[in-house]
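Deviation from plan, reported transparently: fe (ii) ion complex.
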Amino acid sequence: MSPAAPPGDANGSVPPLAAAGLPHPLPFAAPPPRRVAVLADIHANLQALAAVLADLDALAAGWDEPPRLVALGDMIGYGGDPGAVLDLVRARGMAAILGNHEKGALDAACRRQCFHIQSREALERTCELLSGADRKYLSGLPSSMVLGDLRFVHGMPPDDPLTYFITRDDEELLAAFADLPERVCFVGHSHVLDGACLSGGRLTRLELGDEPLCLEQAGRYILCCGSVGQPRDGDNRAKYVVYDRTGETVAVRRVAYDIARAADRIVSRGLPERYAKRLW
Ligand SMILES: [Fe+2]
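Because the crystal trials were delayed, the predicted structure below was used instead.
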């Protein structure tokens, strides 16, 4: 199966909603795709990405239409195979958006200001490993994307690749929902599996666990999708999520992969060893 996934819509500014907590007042131009697989923070981990795609292909073999695939930013950084990961992302027709590591790879000032010294060291080495074609591809990525009533952004909606969901207090989350025109926003960056729901004016924190999350009809969501290539949720398997419009669910997939090989690639390609150790 080879999923067709044309690039999504790049977005400009979005108007704030009149009030957070109300059912969404805007009509949606089109329904979202039936299923979307969201791959966040691959971080140049080719072994994890290959395992995730194999898992998705097996899962989707029984579906009547292929899923759309979205790479939710930070496809590069930390890992040993940034070029090969970008090749695979493109070969699979994944729609991709900008993460903070792509932004840092393209902008030396951002590298100095937005990264601590260890991640900056990894990013400098990553920059040396990227080809001109890779850089050209990264420079064309949008900072967010919309498919129907789903939004995709690396950090926080509407289009911030740098801010962490996990650092937002309730007031900041309510403000984020007020600036979110879509019903569901998928975010990465934090490398964990949690989120927030706004329903009936009430904000609830949630975790994405073993059971699929059933979306409330009147609920609006910001959901953190974990990480394919650098998990930080206490489970060393690669994670991705699948949105299914049929059942209105979001399910986490946890995939074992060859961690030893990925760790070896980090060290052998001259990246800091601490990012190899952290895979375990
Ligand atoms: Fe990341």
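The first strand starts at residue 9 and ends at 10. We consider this an acceptable substitute for the interim report.
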